[in-house]
Structure formats: structure tokens, C-alpha cells
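Consortium newsletter contribution from the modelling node. Members have asked for a concrete example of what our holo predictions look like. Here is one, prepared for the flavin-adenine dinucleotide complex that several groups have been discussing at recent meetings.
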Amino acid sequence: MQHKTDIIVIGAGPVGLFAIFELGLLNLQCHVVDNLNKIGGQCTELYPEKPIFDIPSRPRVSAQELVDNLLEQAKPFNPIFHLNQQAEKLERKEDKLWYLTTSDNITICAKCIVIAAGAGSFVPRKLPIENINEFENISVFYSIKDKSLFKNKKVLIAGGGDSALDWTNDLFSMSEITLIHRRKEFRAAPESVSKMLELEQKKKINFIIGQIHSIKGNLGKISEIEYKRDDKIYSLQTDFLLPFYGLKMELGPIAKWGLNLEENRIKVDTEKFETSVPSIFAIGDINTYPGKLKLILSGFHESALMAQKCFYYCYPDKKNIFRYTTSSKDLHKKLGI
Ligand code: FAD
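And here is the predicted structure:
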């Protein structure tokens, strides 16, 4: 599938969201790619309930409320989101457009790229088992896109956090579920833990204490899992393994795009937040320049200046007239006021 737009924003964190708004004011349409399955970046993934106190004019706002408001603010500009997929490959073709391909094989072409990738992609923590790659996406999954795959199958869920317990409590009615965790204390929400323990008591799921030691199988299909408890090895038959050990952040494919990097962050100028490659910009936590503060408000400022230069790339023959949102009739029309 191929899409065409003015700007591709990589990252749907708070800074990527505000960038959509600033670009929209200048008539620039955005497609946004994020490898999380939800919008909001660190705010939504790491601290949705926590109050933030240093957003201008918001004495106290929860991280999730901030994201919800930024999304509402961006809505008049109809951004198209491509979630649950990583921005993988970036090439510039003879037509002078950028072609970005995602991990779901979607290609988007645009005049400018805006990298708002924070500390990088949120990616699943993997099991430290040598041959695990052989089984990934065949019988080992780190997230669930289509749960019908597990119907009437033996499924081993590993972990003690929210994802592990939520999926245990969800899938038990259609699959034969075993939950494995290294101890009987869990990080998940107390209601999920109580529900899981109730299911265990009613023998609707199995719970075992232990750590996965090895995977056996052929052509990506698991036949048996070995797990370790008190220095003894036990084996268990399963069709699928779902390791839910949380997420970590890593720069990922962006590191290979030939940009000027300094300690895994992208160097930019402070006039337009452009990288060493013309028409590729980096804003928010991902960029670095003298005096950079990794704060949401810094990313907001960077978005506004970046958008001015993007306008120039998209409309080289037009003059950008500076206008206030309070008084410009044209901007009111765009905002649906
Ligand atoms: P992020 O929020 O990190 O979003 C980047 C997004 O890009 C992610 O969703 C990621 O999945 C995606 N991504 C990355 N690479 C790719 C790729 N290749 N393909 C697809 N998607 C990709 N800041 C404040 O200003 N005030 C505070 O009080 C404050 N408190 C904080 C408290 C905590 C606990 C934490 C962890 C941070 C706090 N911060 C605070 C920092 C603030 O959250 C960050 O500055 C902000 O989230 C940066 O926004 P961003 O949009 O640049 O990046």
C-alpha cells in the first residue's frame, strides 16, 4: 500500500502531536507512524496518571490528559496515523520525494520527514534464549494482533505485569492458558491479579513459578518449553509462547539513515531543527544541540520553527505570511471556528 502526503512525522508522542498542529496551520498534511499501538509516546506508555506541572498555562495536567488535548488540537488537520509499526527504511528517489517503508510494508512518500522519535522505538524485552528468533512471529509473539490464532490451543504466557495478566484473564475462555512468572508477586494492577488468582483457584488456568530455560521445536513451531525452578528443569508442552516482559527503548532503524548522531541523538541546528540531511528534521527528545533540555515545552517550540522551514520545502514559490490564531480568519476556517 502506498500513501502520499506533505510530511511524515515519525513518533506520536506529545511533540509529534503538536508538530501536526503547527504544520496544519501552514496547510501541511501529515501521516504519523508509531510503533506503539497507541498515541502518546512516553506520556501514555510510561506515566499516564502522573501529573505534569511545567506545561505553560497548565498548572497541573495528567500526562494522558495532555496527550488527549494535543490530539484534539491536531484533529482539524486530519492526521493519518499508522500505529503498531516501525519506521524502517527511508530512501530519497529521483522525484526528490522521501519514501518511508514501515514494518507492515506500508510505503508513504512525502516532501519532508519530521523525526519526533523520543528516546527511540518502544520494543519488547526479549527472552535471553539463543534460538528464539526461529520461533518469533510463528509461535512466539510479543503482542497480540489477532487472538483467534490461539483458539483451542495451548498458550504459555510469561511475565507478571499488566499485559501478561490481562491476556491471561482474556484468553482463558478460548485457550488452554498457563501463566509462568518467577515468583508469586505481580506488578500488574491488583484487580487483574485477583481475577487471575480466582481463575487459578477454579482451575480455569494453570500458574507455574519458574523461568523459561529453552525452547524446542521445528520450523518455527514450538513442541516443548523447558523451564527452571529451584535449579531443576521441567518441561511443558505448548503451541504458543507469549513473553510479556515489558518494553525498552532503542533508536532502531533511524540509526542507519545516515544522519549526524551524537550519543544516539540527532544533531540539529537551532533555527529550524533540521538535521545534517536537508528536509529531514528532528524535534523533541530525539534531537541534540547546545543547551538542549529534554522537556515537552522545548519540543513544542522546536515544532513551530521546524514547520516554517517545511512550508518552504513544500511551497517553494509561496511566501509564508506570519499570522496569529486569535485574529486570522483563514486560520479560524482551518480550525473549524
Ligand atoms: P516520546 O514521548 O518518547 O515519543 C516518541 C514516539 O516515537 C514513541 O511513541 C516511539 O514509539 C516512537 N518511535 C520512535 N522510533 C520510532 C520508529 N522508528 N518508528 C515508529 N515509531 C517510533 N517532561 C516534561 O516536560 N515535564 C515533566 O514533568 C516530565 N515528566 C516525566 C516523567 C517521566 C516518568 C518520564 C519518563 C518523562 C517525563 N518527561 C517530562 C519527559 C517527557 O515525557 C519527554 O520529554 C516527552 O515524552 C518527549 O516527547 P517526544 O514526543 O519527543 O518523544
